[in-house]
Design goal:
615 residues, alpha/beta, Rossmann fold, 3 domains, eight-stranded antiparallel β-sheet, binds 2-deoxy-2-amino glucitol-6-phosphate
């Protein structure tokens, strides 16, 4: 997600927009830009890097001012972060300028049509296509900016929040939104624009929250018009009074970024699937895989390299790829892989998973694999990150910025991408029936509803957290797909509450860990497996007979385990391969609430960095 800011009024727009962008830096920070209208000219500056870098560049200019302008802080989705791809983007005539938050799914077909009409493109972004589409329509229909924007957006498929200015009409800014947030601050004969209200919180408490499918032609000194994009009909939005404080808003009203990101998971999965899963036609579109499908089909083995939570996603992928696509998989800690002289064949495929795209060990593992001639596929969350540029192909998870050090939505979206690849390959290899294939993609297309439902267990999990928050050790147990989930749950607890925790395959209990069990040792057992239900039931009974405290995660309607567990968290049933999507959420919430109750720094736990760029 990106941040957009705008201002029109009688004050100098530059400081207002610059400070507004700083307030939105949490929404994206790989590049930034501002353009101002001043006396018939547009002054524009943009650059890769954080807003402070842009500010330094502008400070070197003799003057940079105006009474109207727009600004943008970017989280790249199309086109890697560099000066050229930064926003604002201008039309071919250099008269229209736009900032955009969102994804135009049909940008390549629109771009082709515009090129055929003589338009020239200078960036890799979908946003530049949009501003030239608006220009094309404005010229063709000989209409004003507002009408051209309204018509153009009816050709667009995707999500957007935009602000557009036209050098020919310096007394208006046109804004519109569909699928991305946008609000308008109403001042005293001045207007503010923001992706949320933080950019103008100090200037006005009067705000209009545009709804999806709505637009506004914001005019200084004249009546601002509010319309529907679909049919240009007028709307009459309510002006609301702001009551919330700054810190809360940047965290979306949550107390911590981690909790916000846990709750963002349904939307993050939708964003990861956007443009990739065509449920009706049953097509899984992934250019990174499509372009190299022969390599994937010829591979004797897939090796996954990653660290931490990303490594846990890799372990889940091992079960997915072997069970669904019948491809042998090995999962390696990148830090071990890079030094142990692994046997890497040219026909091997290496999949590197990394949220940040900057983890040193994973990067080193990639370089080693490439030096042996293997094909390396990257799964990253940060567009243009080092790993995404080092790998031969890849897929972005589109989870949006993950600020909390403890990874949550990145994990869920990594699993989403890996599942798409496994199911896609199973069809290409002809190892899946069309009935099973349809079941798999249909269940994925609706999994975000089940994630939303699991988030509803939050209060119950919070109560359980209160009961075990003073434990010194915790055991996490799971079987099959839930074994990596047990590891992930243990890591979440360790890294933010500093309570020691271990994840184990449940069957491993009798090979040692059961010696740990006593009344002070809570065991969190992920017991949703239908395949091994009786076995996990006996594992639980073994713990119970040694006075261990059991917290069980079960499918809704479970009859037996919920009778013997001390606490039960019910999650909606789904297919085995998607079970981690529902069983991980309560573990994320459990770790979060325990850490909060212990007064820990949840978003920035001690000794940890969000991205481990050193060995
Ligand atoms: C997960 O909660 C941790 N913050 C950490 O294990 C993280 O997953 C690991 O450092 C890998 O980071 P990456 O995904 O950015 O490569």
């Amino acid at each position: 997600m990106c941040g957009i800011v705008g201002y029109i009024g009688s004050k100098d727009a530059y400081p207002i927009i610059l400070n507004g962008l700083k307030r939105l830096e949490y929404r994206g920070y790989d590049s930034a830009g501002i353009c101002l209208y001043n006396n018939g000219k547009i002054a524009s500056k943009k650059s890769k890097g954080q807003i402070s870098k842009l500010e330094k560049k502008i400070s070197k200019l003799k003057s940079f001012s105006g009474f109207m302008g727009i600004g943008h802080t970017r989280w790249a989705t199309h086109g890697e972060p560099n000066d050229n791809n930064s926003h604002p983007h201008s039309s071919n005539s250099n008269e229209l300028h736009i900032v955009h938050n969102g994804i135009i799914e049909n940008y390549s077909s629109l771009k082709k049509e515009l090129v055929d009409k003589g338009f020239v493109f200078y960036t890799d972004t979908d946003t530049e296509v949009l501003v030239n589409l608006i220009e094309y329509i404005q010229l063709k229909e000989k209409i004003k900016l507002g009408e051209a924007v309204q018509l153009a957006l009816n050709y667009v498929v995707g999500a957007y929040a935009i602000a557009v200015i036209d050098i020919k009409k310096p007394d208006e800014i046109v804004v519109a939104r569909l699928g991305s947030p946008l609000c308008i601050g109403i001042g005293d004969d001045e207007y503010f624009i923001g992706s949320d209200v933080t950019p103008f919180l100090d200037h006005t408490k009067n705000v209009i929250y545009l709804n999806d499918g709505e637009m506004a032609i914001i005019r200084n000194h004249k009546q601002t018009q509010y319309r529907k994009i679909k049919d240009d009909s007028f709307t009459n939005p309510t002006v609301e009074k702001l009551e919330i404080d700054l810190a809360k808003i940047q965290k979306g009203g949550f107390d911590h970024f981690m909790l916000k990101e846990i709750y963002e998971q349904p939307k993050a999965v939708i964003d990861t699937l956007r443009g990739r899963l065509k449920t009706k036609s049953g097509i899984i579109k992934m250019s990174g895989v499509d372009d190299y499908i022969d390599k994937f089909l010829a591979a004797n083995k897939i090796t996954i390299v990653a660290c931490g939570t990303s490594w846990h996603a890799g372990l889940i992928a091992e079960y997915m790829f072997e069970k669904i696509a019948k491809i042998p998989v090995e999962v390696e800690y990148a830090s071990e892989f890079r030094y142990r002289n692994p046997v890497i064949n040219k026909s091997d495929i290496i999949i590197a998973i990394s949220q940040s795209g900057e983890t040193a060990d994973t990067l080193a593992a990639i370089k080693l694999a490439k030096s042996s001639g293997a094909f390396v596929y990257g799964i990253c969350n940060v567009v243009g990150s080092t790993i995404s540029r080092e790998t031969d192909a890849g897929s972005y998870t589109h989870a949006g910025p993950e600020i909390g050090v403890a990874s949550t939505k990145a994990f869920t979206t990594q699993m989403t991408v890996l599942y798409l690849i496994a199911v896609k390959l199973s069809k290409s290899k002809g190892v899946i029936s069309s009935k099973k294939y349809r079941e798999y993609i249909y269940e994925l297309s609706s999994i975000e509803k089940k994630i939303t439902k699991v988030l509803g267990t939050d209060n119950k999990v919070k109560k359980i957290a209160n009961k075990i928050k003073n434990s010194t050790n915790c055991l996490y147990l799971g079987r099959g797909y839930n074994f990596p989930v047990a590891l992930e749950g243990a890591l979440k607890l360790k890294e933010i509450s500093y309570i020691h925790a271990e994840g184990y395959p449940a069957a491993e209990m009798k090979h040692g860990p059961i010696a740990l069990i006593d009344k002070n040792m809570p065991s969190i057992v992920i017991a949703t497996n239908k395949l091994y239900y009786d076995k996990i039931l006996s594992n639980i009974q073994e713990i119970k007979s040694r006075k261990g405290k059991i917290i069980a995660i079960v499918f809704e309607g479970d009859k037996e385990i919920s009778k013997i567990a001390d606490e039960t968290i019910e999650v909606p049933e789904t297919i085995a391969a998607l079970t981690p999507f529902v069983t991980t959420i309560p573990l994320q919430l459990l770790a979060y609430h325990i850490a909060v109750k212990l007064g820990k720094n949840v978003d920035q736990p001690r000794n940890l960095a969000k991205s481990v760029t050193v060995e």
